[in-house]
Amino acid sequence: MELLTVLLQAAGEASGSGLAGIGAGIAAIGAGLGIGKIGTSALESIARQPESTGDIRANMIVAAALVEGVALFAVIVCLLMVL
Amino acid sequence: MYYLCSRFFKALKTVGNMLKTSRFKSRASLKSILRVLPLLLFFFSFSGTWAIAQDSTAVSEIAVNETQAEEESLDASKMILHHIADAHEIHLFDDVAIYLPVILITDDGLKVFSSSHFYHNPITEYHGEEKLEYYAYGDFILYHEKVYLASAEGGLTLDPVTGEIANEAALDFSITKSVVGVILTLLILVLIFGSVARGYKKREGRAPKGLQSFMEPLILFVRDEVAVPSIGKEKADRFMPFLLSMFFFIWAANLLGLIPFIGGFNVTGTISVTLVLAALVFITITINGNKHYWTHILAPSGVPLPVKFILVPIEFLSIFIKPVVLMVRLTANITAGHIIILAFVSLVLIFGEVSAATGYGVGVGSVLFLIFMYFIKLLVVFLQAYVFTLLAAIYLGEATQEAHH
Q1: Where in B108-195 does DSSP place strands (E)?
Q2: CATH code at A42?
Q3: What ipTM does this complex have?
Q4: Are residues A69 and B62, on separate chains, in Cβ contact within 8 Å?
């Protein structure tokens, strides 16, 4: 309970830029996890069926672009917070 | 301008027709000309300039607070934000710049003058402890690339409560750097596609040669990998001009931003340009949506009534959210790439402030990483254009598919 009140107080005083930095960091974690999963499944599928490497690579890149779009969405929101 | 645009579209259509007759057995549809009208709206989108002028201020205001802590000689964040935002001049180096015309609509009518009047007249004011730097000319003030009307005393007034600018903003229709970027991209595309279309006409039935043979795989790629899988073979040709224009414009505009030393264009990183692109996608989808599409959104079948209350608002909102996401994805990716490059450059400059030796040392590693990031950006630039076009094609496919339950 003590810890919670201290944290909430700190969060209330915290400047916009500090929290925005944390938000951008969490967005980066999300992007890393998402693209990591995509890469994992792509590599496993290539290992199972090497002749479809081209198709898998193209789809992997498209999915990575979409995931990265979402992460950059969050980065933009954090940037707007600071302004 | 109109002549160039109409030639551009004729060129695209000729290319499309040539490909169709030589390789494809479907018949050309004249209605596709109507589909192309939204693109005319796009190329006349100088109204985007107004939004540009409104928007660029938001990006640069952060620097006002941070200048206090940073040294006077180099403020890295301010420099970075200044370089990715829009500007009323094309700043080449040191004192050399191309000053673009400022076009304002005021109560006294239309005012047009060169922005050199602004940039040659900097003023520094102190309001309490805060330092305000802006440019003034006549009745107008340029503060962080946004034009304001000067107050009665002549100058900026700050709102006493919030500390924000209390001057009225002028209606700004200037030719800014991003507008020049759009025009440049347009010219490049007209040149390339004009020559490709002429080549197809001259060499009817023969193998392609020169620039044609470079463009043809790309155009066929957009048709066979993007349009046909998403929209279906019969209807894909209707939307080919639209999708081709989107793809090549975004790719060319992104590439323009990558070229160093010409003033740093950030065309697709300006949210108003991508807003227009997304708006065109939205308009095209709405115009071409068939009955099946609208019933699917507003009156979905096979769904119990309580779920309908949740589903219909969500579906209705998604009509607007999908183009907005397209817009933000493109802007964010391109701007992020620019920020990374600028951050590494300013890293060298920051270390250079300390001493020349550290500057050189950091410079070597930084430049190598910069070159690596440039290669990544080349890939990202193509990828973002492809993803934009692919998603536009998928949305169009959803809008025009027949019921097949």
Answers
A1: 109-114, 122-127, 130-137, 140-143, 146-149, 171-172
A2: 1.20.20.10
A3: 0.74
A4: no
